[in-house]
Amino acid sequence: MTNNKNNPTTVIIGAGQSGLAMSRELTCRGVDHLIVERGRVANSWRSERWDSLKLLSPNWMNGLPGQDYDGSDHDGYMDVAELIGRFDRYAANISAPVRAETTVLSVERTGTGFRVQTDDGAIDCDTLVMANGACGIPNVPAFASELPAGMASHTPHSYKRPADLPDGRVLVVGASASGLQLAREIHASGRDVTLAVGGHLRLPRVYRGADILTWMEIIGATRIPYTEVDDIERVRRTPSLPLVADETLDLNMLQDMGVEIAGRLATIRDGRALFSGSLANVCAAADLKMNRLFAAIDEWVARSDLGDLIEPAERLASVRIPESPRLQADLLGEGYRSVVWATGYRPDFGWLRLPVFDRKGRLVHDGGVVGDGLYVMGLPYLRQRRSTFIDGVGEDANALAEHLTANLGRKLAA
Questions:
Q1: Cβ contacts of residue 330 below 8 Å, gap of 6+?
Q2: Strands 169-173 and 265-269, sheet pairing
Q3: How far apart are CA 300 and CA 305, in angstroms?
Q4: Residue 263: which region, alpha, beta or left (left: phi > 0; alpha: psi -120 to 50)?
Q5: How far apart are CA 227 and CA 283, in angstroms?
Q6: Phi, psi values for residue 259, rounded to 5°
């Protein structure tokens, strides 16, 4: 399985955690390959994150295949600069064959293989792994175009720090991990903030003396195979876990700080932001799901007869709903000067010229296997919930590399 650099057996698109993990697994199996990266290793971490961001997963969850976390603060939360340094060292240690600063323009079939057209020429390969991740394009609603002229508009890709925002009130749209963190940071800078709460989950950072992600690992909540999940497509669209580094941050705490919460931003019309009246229902559902997880943890503790060794069970106060949640805002009239769209992302497969999408434009795959030598990594709940976390990509890479290698073997035998 040895070819020249313009005709490798496998092309991997993307040199983030998924692409590097797959590179290591293919190297271990003797499959020659090339990683095509539009920037540098860990490019999205380098250029598409805000300055103060820390990882939401504890350090022990941030290793890669063959390189577990080796620092002294296993239960801490590293910042992005440290993560990038670790990725750089990992790429060097595994001799990852990265062609940096190379943008993929299109991918098409050529007989039984693929042609990857880049801005630096074409590359032919037998198999292809799309490891460019789930966060390629900010998922900004179409009505964002109705913002009044002169209002600044940012996403977590473009926002770097509060000082970059104009003076005035800020509307943060979305209350998953990014929205919660940005609402807090921007409010702490001295600006009035309104947080529009759409799809929402709620979790504490610590429960019964341990990180909530540690508990989810212990009880097996992160390892349920995608094949055993009811309605996996719905689960894959679930908002990201609303966790921040070091501490719990939820809607009650934001309100205590002075952040105003409102319902889902439904639309913008004639300079007015119109909010849904479903805030109470959304928050009640988030509390219900959180308490179900607590009950599962409590049941595991009781079943393991560890109650005397672990902190007692506790419950958080329900999310407080404003007496009269606002249903609209006159954006310019009330002094709003910027909006931050923390409304999630979607993957960027605009260059993929193959009939592998459903009627809503979503990539169709079976646990990362798209079919006929085509694979994808880095999407939510690809094979299990752990797929979302950095160290979860190792198991995904191992499973998909096994499938890929077997697929190559069948081609050679044909």
A1: 271, 272
A2: unpaired
A3: 8
A4: beta
A5: 29
A6: -75, 135
- Whose structure tokens read 């009627």? 359
Residues of the chain with pLDDT under 50: 1-3
Q: What are phi and psi of 339, to 5 degrees?
A: -130, 135
| 293: number of Cβ within 10 Å | 19
Residue 168: is it exposed, middle or buried by C-beta count within 10 angstroms (0-12/13-18/19+)?
A: middle
Residues forming beta bridges with residue 210, ordered by sequence position: 207
Residues 82-97 as b/e (b if ≥16 CB within 10 A, e otherwise) read bbbebbeebbeebebb
Q: Phi and psi (nearest 5°) for 399?
A: -65, -45
Across the beta sheet with 121-125, the strand order is: 104-110, 113-118, 121-125
Q: Looking at the chain, how many residues does it have?
A: 414
CA 413 vs CA 76, 113, 141, 176, 194: distances in Å:
49, 16, 49, 49, 62
Tokens of 321: 């709903």
pTM comes to 0.93
Per-residue pLDDT tens over the stretch 365-398: 999 999 999 999 999 999 999 999 999 999 999 9
What does each C-alpha distance from 199 to 170, 240, 311, 355, 412 come to in angstroms?
20, 10, 31, 30, 48
Helices (H), 50-108: 80-93
The tens digit of pLDDT for each residue in 281-337 reads: 999 999 999 999 999 999 999 999 999 999 999 999 999 999 999 999 999 999 999
The CA distance from 135 to 345, in Å, is 5
Domains delineated in the chain: 10-136+347-413 (3.50.50.60), 139-341 (no CATH)
The span from the CA of 389 to the CA of 216, in Å, is 12
